[in-house]
Amino acid sequence: MFLLISRPFIISSRIFLLPRLKFLIQRHVSILNSDSTIRACFVLQILGTDTKNVTVQPSLILNSVSGTITANRSKAKLEQSLWEDALLDAQKVIELEPSSHVGYQLKHTALHGARRYREAVEAFQIMLAKLDSARGMQIRKLRDKYVSPSRAEGIIQKLIDVQLQSAPLRLLNTNTGLLCGREAQISAFKTTTEYEQLLLSIMKHADLPMERIADAVVAYFRYAMLSHRWGENEPLLHDIQDSVVYKLKAAGGLVKLQSFCKLARHAGYHWAWVDTCCIDQNNYVELQNSLNSMFSWYRRSALTVVYLSDVPPSSKSGALAKSAWNTRGWTVPEFLAPKVIRFCQQDWTPYLDDHSPNHKESVQIMDELEDATGIYERVLVAFQPGMRDARQKLQWVSTRATTIPEDIAYSLFGIFGIHLPILYGENAQNALGRLLQEIVARSGDITPLDWVGQPSEFNSCLPAHISSYAAPPRALLYLSEDQIQTAVSSLRHTVAVDQALKIYDQLVNMSAPRFANCRLRLPCIVFPVTEVRRRSGPDQEASSTYTVKADGLDDVSITTEENLIQFSRLRPTRRTFLLVRPWDRRLLELPDFADDEENLGDCPPLDDSDESTGGSPGEEEITDSESYSRALRLIVRLGQPFGAFLLAQQRGGEYKRIGSDHDIIARVKDVTSVHSMMDLRTLEIL
Fold first, then answer.
1. pTM, 2 dp
2. Tell me, what's the pLDDT at 610?
C-alpha cells in the first residue's frame, strides 16, 4: 500500500521531534536498511503519526528527514566558520530537497562567508525564486523580507547616477591604469566585491537605510585630483586613451602621471583625475563644461595632491612660497576648493615631512601659504565660494599669470560661484569684463570698481588688466563712534529734520547699479567739474598730473595717461566733466540680511494679537528722533573723504571713466552744507 503525507506536516514535525528522531534512528539502523515502505512507516511512527489510514510516499519522507539532518549539520558548520564543509552539506540539502529554499539559503551563507560573492548572489537569486514559487503565509512573510535582484540593482544604479553627475566625465582607474568614461567606471564597479556585497546587503535587508547604500557608492567612486604646474611633454587624452598608463614609457609628464596614480592608489582611491589628459581639449563643449565644473570637482574630491616639481626633497619651510606653482592663476581655486589637500615635493614625499592625512590641518603649512598668498588661514581652510568680499578675491589673483590670457578670468568663475561661457580668443579684457559685469550685476557690489590703472575696452569703469587690483582697496580714514556722535550733535543745530530725512529717503531709494551689454548704470552723487588745469612737468613722461576743481569739493589731483582738455569758468568747454561718488549702500548702516537668513528659523512667530493700527504719540516721537539721528549719521559719513571717479561725457550723452595712476581722493569743503549739494543721478557709463 502507498501512504500519502503532506509536506507541511513533515516540515513542522521535524522541527520539534528532531532530537527524538535522531536517537531512535540510531537504535534501529536495521529497520532503516529494509524495504523503503517499512522504513517510511517506521519514521512516521517515530514522529507519532498513525499509519493505518495514511498513504506515504517513501522518498519524500526520507529525503525530507535526511535534508533536515544535513541542513542542521550545515548550520552548525556555519557557526564554526567552516565555510567549505558547510557548502558541501548545503549542496546535499539541495539534492535531497531541490524545491526547497533552505539549501540555497545555506549555500548563499557559506559562499558569502568564503567571500565568493558572485556565487553567493547567484545562490540568493535561486533562493528567492524558490520562495516565489512556494505557497503558505509564513513563506510569503519570509519572502517580503528580501528585495529582488533587479530592484536592488536599480537602487544602486540611481545612486551611481547621482554620484557621477557631479564628478569628472573621465577618470583614471588607479588599479588598471586605464582612462575610463562613465560607462567604464560603472562596469568596473560592478565587477568588484564591493558591488556584490552591496547588492547582497540590499537583497537581504529590505529595510536597509538608503544612507548606508549611498555611503557605499560614494566610498567606491571617491577620486583624487592633481594640482600642478604644466611642464613640457604633458600627456594629453590621445596619448593615453586605450593604453595602460603604468605600461607607457616613463618620460616627461608621464612620470608625473604615473607617480600620481600610484600615490592615489596607495592612499586607497580607485580613481584619479589630471587636467592634462582627462579632458578632450579638442572638444569645445566638453572643455567649456569642464572649466565651469572645475571648482566643484576639486570641491568634491576626496583628496587633492599639490605637486611642487621645483621643491627638492627635504626642503625647509619657505620652499612652498617660492615655488612656481604659487605664481599660477589656476592654482588658486585648486587649493581653495578642496577640503583635503596634501603638498608633495619633487620626489613625491610629503612637504616638510608632514605625513598627516590633510595638510589643511597643518598650522605650519597653512601659515606659510597665508604669507605667500595673502589669504587668511581661516579662508584657506574653509573657503566658501560666492560674491562676498569681491574686491579682496580679485586681489588674490592680481599678481598671478596664466599661459592663455583669458584663463586669469576663467579661473575665478568657481571662486565667485559663476557659470559663464568659455570663449577662448575673446581676449583677456573681454573675459575679465564679463566676469566683473556679472559680479556687479548680480551682487550690486561696487568694490570691483575700486582700481587704478588703464580702463578696459569692455567698459571704462573696469580695469584693462587684473593687476589693477594688486594695490589694496583705498584706505580712507573713518570716524570713531565718539567722533560721529559729536558731529551729529553739531549738525542738529544746522540741518533741519525735514532736510535730513529727505536726503536719507532719496539715498535709500536709489537703485542698485545695473550692468548689461557692456553698459553700466551707476547711481552717483555728482559734483560738476568747473576747471581742469595741467601741472607743469617733463613732457616726455607718459602720464600727466592735473588739478581738478568741482563744485563743493576741495581741489583734486589726478595723474593719467589721457590728454585732458584744460578749461575753467572763464574758458569753459562744451564737453561735460564730472567728479562722482558712486553710491555705496553700506553708508546707510543697514543690517546685512544675508548673514541672518540662516537664523530666521530660530525667531519666534509673530503674535497677531500684539499688532496695533497705530502707536502712541510718545512712540511716534521716539521713531522720528531715531530716523533723524540715522539721517544725520549718514550726512556725517557723506562729509568724509571718498574715492571719486572722473567722468567725461560722450557725444551720445553717456560717460566714460578717465583712468588714473593713483586713487582719486575727494573731500567735501563744508560738512554742514552736504545736504544742500546733493545732486543724485544714475549715469550710463560706457
1. 0.82
2. 44
